[in-house]
Task: structure prediction
Amino acid sequence: MSNCLVEIDESSAVVRLTGVLDAAGAEAVRGALLARLSDRPGPVVADVTGLRIVDEVGRGVFAEVRREVADWPAADLLLCDPAVQVGVGAPARQTVEAGVPVWPTVDGALAALAATPLAAVLSADLAPAVGAARQARELVTTGCQRWGMSMLVDPACIAITEMVNNVVAHARTPMTVRLAPQDSTLHLAVRDHSPRRPTFAGVSPPNRAGGRGLLLIDTVARRWGSSAIPDGKVVWCVLHPDDEVAHLG
Result:
């Protein structure tokens, strides 16, 4: 990381990277971007105007981060790179390079974000204490009703209960619960400050106490997973109303 400086703009969605990015610095850049995306809802713009990328590993880190956060609630990564050619007479037009949307100017990228603001997102900071799961369920119920996803209230409450209780029982750190709709799906995430990743080994034996939380999430969610970030992790899942129709049928 010594050759690449990451500067977080707390007042905006912009993260500025300057210096030289190579394979050795890629992991630190990945971590810094994921941490910023976990700390605030909405897309982040990585401004690489002052960055020289010297190998494919360095360049590939941006697409890797975008794939990692694809199922997080209200998260995405955009690039500002004036070196990308977008055509004569189109200084603010977006293109796509290696799977990442790119604008040649920061203003262009921020204008694109402003033109497509977050439709909705709800977040809550919770302590790892008794009652945290109830607060998370209340947030989920409010979101589902507000966004016309009442069919997903029950499965979403099951998933968020297990995600939050896992933090209370194992991570024992403060957490942030976040949820957002995306098209017809509901995206949930819980961010904590423990590096311990959840492991899922399939169906728990009948004689084993506990260990069924991830099975419940796996049952109600279309997809779920966890993402390591420098000071903890994000556990996320995606629920789809079509799955509930199938269960009812």
Notes: The chain has seven helices and twelve strands. Residues 153-171 form the longest helix (19 residues). The longest strand covers residues 14-21.
